[in-house]
Design goal:
Low-confidence stretches: 1-5, 8-21, 25-46, 358-368, 375-398
Length: 398
């Protein structure tokens, strides 16, 4: 009977950048040891994000044993070696799994590894997001993920670059996973574009793709993440609602912007829109005070081409009495909420006369004694000449 040295995996965080960190899996001793990881759990405002490998409590691993390369056996290879193997972080920092697996002694035999996080047990009630290919299905593994509707239930989904055709000799008994953010992080901020106090945002949502399928593949080169997303046709969309339903807008143009929501959504920007409802103080023709309610549905978002796997985009919504301005910025580091690069903006204004372009009912209440209506101006990709704006506390000038 064949004997095999243990496959030992000790996960060690080596590096973390905008969209990846490395998790090392190494032998504990000459006899081998358990798979170990060091992923991470760091909760931000509402959605759950992972800033480092130490934040994670568990990984799921798929492994394929093949006689020869995976490519030569892809039509028949199945994840019988490990199928959604639960790998748990211990209090001492080691990561354990059971039953222990072994490296093949025959150098022509290979093991290919695929991993994701956080771990989901598909065998328990409610453990069906993501959904995996069947254990008997041949070829590369995949998962189908549905984004939770509520902001505060969304979770950072991580996928590892595949490690193909591994042997104890080829990697010295070390298996090294590089985990990547598989979704797009969307942060939404609100600032005031006028000096009118007592404005409030009461609802906000983004309309985007609800479900997608991530399929692993052999990386084309060292810079390739080794997986891609596909979507059913037609693409099913969903409304993702912000948890905050009563956000006070800063009362002046000099006040800092405030955080409204953070979403972790599928990396598909085509056709995505947002809806917002906010209130502002107003008055009747008799000068009697009233609260205006402005509701805008399915409005355009700028820079949708930046919705890529692992990207971090922020939208700053500037609110004033007659218009809102939505500015997009891209951030080089996933967890960095600081200065970004402005990539575009959309201005939504309120028409006050039936002769204005695209006159139509856009909400309830009054603006300067006229019904609230909206039209959208052409997308702007640079700051307007002769003006200066503030993004993340940094003045941006033409």
């Amino acid at each position: 009977m064949k004997t095999f040295p243990h496959i030992g995996i000790l996960a060690v965080l080596l590096a973390f950048s905008a969209c990846s960190w490395e998790v090392c899996m190494d032998e504990h001793s000459a006899e081998g040891g358990e798979i170990g990881f060091l992923p991470g759990l760091s909760a931000t405002k509402a959605a759950t994000e992972y800033a480092s490998a130490t934040d994670l409590s568990a990984l799921g691993v798929f492994a394929y044993f093949t006689h020869g390369s995976f490519a030569a056996n892809s039509s028949s290879a199945t994840p019988g070696f490990m199928y959604n193997q639960y790998v748990e972080r211990q209090t001492d920092g080691f990561w354990l799994y059971s039953p222990v697996r072994f490296w093949p002694l025959n150098t022509n035999d290979k093991v290919s590894f695929f991993a994701y996080a956080p771990y989901v047990d598909e065998t328990v009630s409610g453990g069906n997001n993501p959904v995996f290919k069947d254990k008997s299905a041949a070829g590369y593994p995949s998962l189908t993920y549905a984004v939770p509707t509520d902001e505060d239930k969304q979770t950072d989904l991580l996928a590892a670059t595949p490690l193909m055709d591994q042997t104890s000799e080829s990697n010295g008994g070390t298996v090294k996973f590089a985990l990547k953010h598989a979704l797009t992080k969307i942060a939404v901020f609100v600032k005031s574009n006028d000096n009118i106090a007592n404005k409030k945002v009461t609802t906000f949502s983004i309309q985007a793709a609800q479900r997608g399928t991530l399929t692993w593949k052999t990386p084309a080169d060292a810079n390739n993440v080794g997986f891609n997303w596909t979507y059913a046709s037609p693409v099913a969309t969903e409304t993702f609602a912000a948890a905050n339903t009563n956000l006070s807008v800063p009362s002046s143009t000099t006040a800092e912007k405030v955080s409204l929501a953070t979403f972790l959504l599928l990396p598909r920007g085509d056709g995505n829109t947002f809806s917002i409802t906010y209130t502002a103080p107003g008055s009747l023709s008799s000068s009697a005070p009233l609260t205006q309610t402005i509701a805008l549905a399915n409005q355009p978002l700028p820079s949708l081409d930046g919705w890529k796997q692992g990207n971090f985009i922020s939208y700053t919504i500037g609110i004033e009495k007659k218009k809102i301005t939505v500015t997009a910025a891209s951030h080089p580091v996933w967890n960095d909420g600081g200065t970004g690069t402005v990539t575009g903006s959309v201005v939504i204004t309120y028409a006050v006369s039936p002769t204005d372009p695209n006159w139509g009912n856009g909400g309830t209440g009054m603006v300067d004694g006229q019904p609230v209506v909206t039209h959208t101006e052409q997308d702007i990709t640079v700051w307007q000449p002769g003006t200066s704006e503030t993004l993340d506390g940094t003045e941006t000038t033409p």
